[in-house]
Structures are given as C-alpha cells and as structure tokens.
Specification:
Two copies of one chain form a homodimer. Chain A has two domains: 5-73, Multidrug-efflux Transporter Regulator, Chain: A, Domain 2; 77-128, no CATH class. Chain A contains seven helices and two strands, in the order H-H-E-E-H-H-H-H-H. The N and C termini of chain A lie far apart (54 Å). In chain A, helix 1 crosses helix 2 and helix 1 crosses helix 3. The first copy, chain A, has helices spanning 5-12, 16-24, 43-56, 61-73, 77-101, 106-112, 115-128, and strands spanning 31-32, 38-39. A two-stranded antiparallel ribbon of chain A has the order 1-2. Chain A has 129 residues and is mainly alpha-helical. Chain A binds a DNA duplex (30 and 30 nucleotides) through residues 4-6, 15-18, 20-21, 25, 33, 35-38, 55, 60-62.
Chain lengths: 129, 129
DNA sequence: GGTCTTAACCATCACGTTATAGTTTGGGGT
DNA sequence: ACCCCAAACTATAACGTGATGGTTAAGACC
C-alpha cells in the first residue's frame, strides 16, 4: 500500500513540509491520484534517511539530488551529454540570430543572463581551449 | 540611480522578501551587478503598487504577471531572448554537472561540441565581458 | 589619498507558516 | 447498506525565517 505525505513524514521523522519540498525539488518521487494527492511507496522513507545523512555531511540538496540520480541512472551519461550539447549549440545560434537581427544592447543581454551562467560558459570554454 | 532591494522595499511599503519573491516570479525585473546584487529602477516601486492593488482584487500573482506581460507585450523580443538564454543556462549547467560527476576528458567534450558552437559562445562572452 | 577593518547589506537555501480550497473518511442516522 | 456530514487530511500560493557565505560602504588609521 502506498503512503500519504504525513505517513511518510512520520515514518521518516521529518515534517510534511520537508517531504513536500523534497518532492518539489525532485528528490522524491510520488504518484498522483486523480485528485492530485501524492502517494509514496515505502522506499521513500529510506530515501529520506539517505538524504538526511548526506545533509549531515554538508551536502546541499542539489548535490544530493545529483548523487541520487547517479545511483539510479548510472549509465546513459554520454548520450545525455551529446544531446545536451546539441541543445546548447542550437540555443547559442538562436541567440546569436536574435542578436544580429535586433539591435539589442549589451546591457539587455547581460541583464537576462545570470552571472553563474556566464562563468559556467567561461569555465566550459577554458576546459576546451 | 538604481535602487537596491531594501530601498525598493521601503519605498513600496513591502518587505524585502516580497520584492525578492516578485523578482523570482518574474513580476519585477532587476539588473544584476557583477556580484549578483539586484538593482531596480524607480519604476519598480510603482509596479509594486500596481501589483498590490491587483492583489486586493483577489488576483493571483500568476494572473497579475500575465496582465503585466500584456502591457509590455512590445518586449516580445526580449522575452524570446530571455527564454533562449534560460534554456542556454540550463544546458550549460547540465553539461557542467555531467562534467563534474564523471571524469570525462577534454577530448570527449570537444568531440561532441562543434567548432562553430565554441566560437559562438566565445563571441557571446566577448560581447558581454 | 591609500588601505584595512567592520558593520550593514545582499543572495540563496531549506524549510516554516498561514490562508485558501479541494479531498477523504469515519461515524450517525435511517 | 446507503446517504450525509463534519473532522481530518491534502495541495498550493505567498510570503516569513534563520543560517550561511559573499559584498559594499563608512570610518579609523597611517
């Protein structure tokens, strides 16, 4: 039998809000009923235990999520990477097209691009060149 | 002169958290400094006033956002650009995540990334920095 | 005027909280 | 057994909160 959010929360010794948050962040998976209720299976309780332990080791939820993804998706990394890079190429050329057609300013662009993204791109280029 | 978040908040009679939230939800636009600080122009203060008034009429922020978007539909280009750039950001961070997780080599990456794409990214960065 | 320190500020994370609106369920009556 | 209802549960929105880790700006000192 599947568990509702408060049952999961109690069994895992966390609050409902925590289960809610983890679910929204994609660290926990839940079925949805027709009425949009979440239903978890028992495995979720253990999963929360793992998450809490990793948190004690100062990992952020984002990092924990990555680690969990690795455990479960182990493989198709390079295929994924290939596809991501294709997407990236398309995005970049789209952007450049827009930049050429419209006379948008440097500021307009920078205001819409997060600084993390810029530094990520820089890092990527540094790795490659 | 541009305003910082707490200045906007005080002038508009809302909390910083509210300004933060509206900004994240895309109801308010802010420039970002190199250090990632948000800088608003005074128009933002009035904008918040409009939002609060619409909230009194029981509109949700999502609905308010749509209404504001219509008002400034002239900015379709920028919206398009924004979305493209968001896609780009996601792609880049995805790629970096994979790069961090796996010990993929420079060669593996370069083999999957076209030469044109690299130079496009370089151009983009040159425009911005 | 330059440098150095420190208090005040800022961004983000990981939830907490309150309000609203919809859902499920254990009775109670018939 | 079937219908009705209130109590308990649920999802989501819109912030609030405390911790953490950077940033900026205003003096103090040289």
């Amino acid at each position: 039998m599947k568990l509702k959010i408060s049952e999961v929360a109690e069994l895992a010794n966390v609050t409902k809000r925590t289960v809610d948050y983890y679910t929204n962040q994609g660290l926990l998976r839940a079925e949805r009923s027709a009425s949009n209720y979440r239903y978890y299976d028992r495995e979720a309780v253990d999963q929360i235990g793992v998450i809490e332990r990793l948190k004690d080791e100062k990992l952020s939820l984002a990092e924990i999520k990555k680690r969990l993804k690795v455990d479960q998706a182990e493989n198709a990394d390079i295929e994924e990477l290939k596809m991501k890079i294709q997407d990236l190429e398309m995005d970049v050329s789209d952007i450049m097209n827009i930049l050429e057609k419209k006379g948008l300013t440097k500021e307009t662009i920078r205001n819409n691009l997060s600084h993390e993204s810029i530094s990520l791109m820089q890092t990527l280029l540094l790795l490659l060149i």
